[in-house]
């Protein structure tokens, strides 16, 4: 069974230090590479789907969260306020209030809707220290978040489109949803009271799930304090479930912030907010990828995509030449030369790297490479340029395959 903490340390992806604090992991160069690649993938998918990206600060005044309702309903999960002169500021528990203010910063027309604002931003949760571990329970979270401001008529289509983005991303990442859950409020005072709006939002989410053709279960007591949500549940190799991606339809926060747009009738109307996250937090996404793939990331995400193995010192120069050409194609490649041990030992050490190219005397002389795949297949010897072209094609296409039989 794969434990992402052990793999993270073994592969040099991330770590923690008691001096930085529990639940505050840092990312090492190879981990940062995976994270950058994942973040850029999501941003690209979002741009293609009509989202615009913004940046907003991780701090906000206490009044901001009083207005949003977080202060009343979510305070136990927030870090205590910091005194700053006469003001109190807080580490934000979510990005929604900031994005509501970005929407409110200009007068908005119905012609701008749906306005899709995305941000991969930091947020903070004061998890109890006993619950912290690795990347799955952290106090600093970097969420792939977005808020779609739209008319009530557009909300179902926006939620359905978000579900489509999620399933495409899961296919590219080689992960799968364990199930879809429609999370509803439970008893207790955790939730804002407005039964009519809860019912309306729930009906729209059901419509989105149905139009996406997705089966789902309902769960009481799992909603956000301000509204119901669709949770895309993932399961670790031990079968433990957690939520990775979410889609919500929210009538509450647009009202809290007094959001308006001018309609075709010239009157002012209240927009709906669709909150959605495609890959959830980068922390949980990378933890899950590690556990599902046992550290063997899909080619496009792998920190090193190709290891070139010269059999002897005489082939080292040629090996560096292949790595240089791989770099020109945007591939991440490195040489593991004879100084690092026997060929067998070097091959074993590179067992998670998708492609290995062995260069013996013959290959170095004729510009070819003997190709090995990490799944044990050996497609044979082919021109090095042809190998690099095939890897670059595979990276550009995303997805999880290694090689197509010619
Ligand atoms: Zn939100």
UniProtKB/TrEMBL annotation:
<keyword id="KW-0479">Metal-binding</keyword>
<dbReference type="InterPro" id="IPR033728">
    <property type="entry name" value="ThrRS_core"/>
</dbReference>
<dbReference type="InterPro" id="IPR045864">
    <property type="entry name" value="aa-tRNA-synth_II/BPL/LPL"/>
</dbReference>
<keyword id="KW-0648">Protein biosynthesis</keyword>
<dbReference type="InterPro" id="IPR002320">
    <property type="entry name" value="Thr-tRNA-ligase_IIa"/>
</dbReference>
<keyword id="KW-0963">Cytoplasm</keyword>
<dbReference type="InterPro" id="IPR036621">
    <property type="entry name" value="Anticodon-bd_dom_sf"/>
</dbReference>
<dbReference type="InterPro" id="IPR006195">
    <property type="entry name" value="aa-tRNA-synth_II"/>
</dbReference>
<keyword id="KW-0436">Ligase</keyword>
<keyword id="KW-0547">Nucleotide-binding</keyword>
<keyword id="KW-0030">Aminoacyl-tRNA synthetase</keyword>
<dbReference type="GO" id="GO:0004829">
    <property type="term" value="F:threonine-tRNA ligase activity"/>
</dbReference>
<protein>
    <recommendedName>
        <fullName>Threonine--tRNA ligase</fullName>
        <ecNumber>6.1.1.3</ecNumber>
    </recommendedName>
</protein>
<dbReference type="Pfam" id="PF03129">
    <property type="entry name" value="HGTP_anticodon"/>
</dbReference>
<comment type="similarity">
    <text>Belongs to the class-II aminoacyl-tRNA synthetase family.</text>
</comment>
<dbReference type="Pfam" id="PF00587">
    <property type="entry name" value="tRNA-synt_2b"/>
</dbReference>
<dbReference type="InterPro" id="IPR004154">
    <property type="entry name" value="Anticodon-bd"/>
</dbReference>
<feature type="domain" description="Aminoacyl-transfer RNA synthetases class-II family profile">
    <location>
        <begin position="29"/>
        <end position="298"/>
    </location>
</feature>
<keyword id="KW-0862">Zinc</keyword>
<keyword id="KW-0067">ATP-binding</keyword>
<dbReference type="InterPro" id="IPR002314">
    <property type="entry name" value="aa-tRNA-synt_IIb"/>
</dbReference>
